[in-house]
Write a structure and sequence with these properties.
The chain is α/β, with parallel strands linked by helices. Helix content is 26%, strand content 27%. It is built from six helices and eight strands; from the N terminus they run H-H-E-H-E-H-E-E-H-E-E-H-E-E. Residues 48-141 form the Methyltransferase domain.
Length: 207
């Protein structure tokens, strides 16, 4: 067990309490770092998993760009909110109730985007997370992870990471293409300091 006793919201309740647009992680726009990465890598189509979709705003923007999008979350309230938003905009997106640590989603996906799931997981479950996302990313696909940076002051809320930690945690299963210091766009002012990580699956070991 971890000796980290930090507390996180009740993910089942938070979307039932209203004021979703005031949640700290709510970003009505496509994540700027993701948009730049997609453009830089020439990724304009394919299957995308928005992991921990929350209010679904990222999934909506990706669908509007023509991607085949699945959004997953362990909160039924989040899934319901995202489904309603997609219906209002006439977008076809598959939203599923799923826990990445016990995932039943069938891949592979050309892109898996995690904008807030990884950095709230217990440290002792990080290896399970890496194994789960490795199964979901296509051999020639990409994993994009945004998480809080160790440069962000304080120790409340999401766990903080250094670039070296990203290499240590993911390096056995993924090639870490880049880890850039950035900010986590949302409703906090100023935006928290963050890392944006671009990862490619390593070939599966034979035998």
């Amino acid at each position: 067990m971890s000796n980290d006793d930090r507390q996180f919201p009740d993910w089942q309740q938070v979307y039932k309490d209203g004021a979703v647009e005031q949640l700290p992680w709510y970003n009505p726009d496509l994540d700027a770092d993701l948009a730049r990465a997609l453009e830089r890598l020439g990724i304009a189509s394919g299957k995308v998993l928005d992991l921990g979709t929350g209010p679904g705003t990222q999934a909506l923007h990706l669908a509007q760009r023509g991607f085949d999008v699945t959004g997953s979350d362990l909160s039924q309230g989040a899934v319901a909110y995202a489904e309603q938003l997609a219906a209002e905009r006439g977008l076809s997106i598959r939203f599923v109730l799923d826990d990445i640590l016990n995932s039943t989603i069938a891949g592979p996906f050309d892109v898996v985007f995690d904008r807030g799931c990884f950095h709230v997981l217990p440290p002792e479950r990080r290896a399970d997370y890496v194994a789960a996302v490795r199964r979901l990313v296509a051999p020639d696909g990409h994993l994009f992870v945004k998480c809080f940076s160790s440069l962000q002051p304080g120790d409340v809320g999401p766990h903080r990471f250094t670039p070296e930690m990203i290499h240590e945690i993911f390096g056995g299963s993924f090639e870490v293409s880049s880890v850039d210091q950035t900010v986590y766009q949302g409703q906090r002012d100023p935006f928290p300091l963050a890392l944006f990580c671009v990862l490619r699956p390593r070939p599966a070991a034979n035998g």
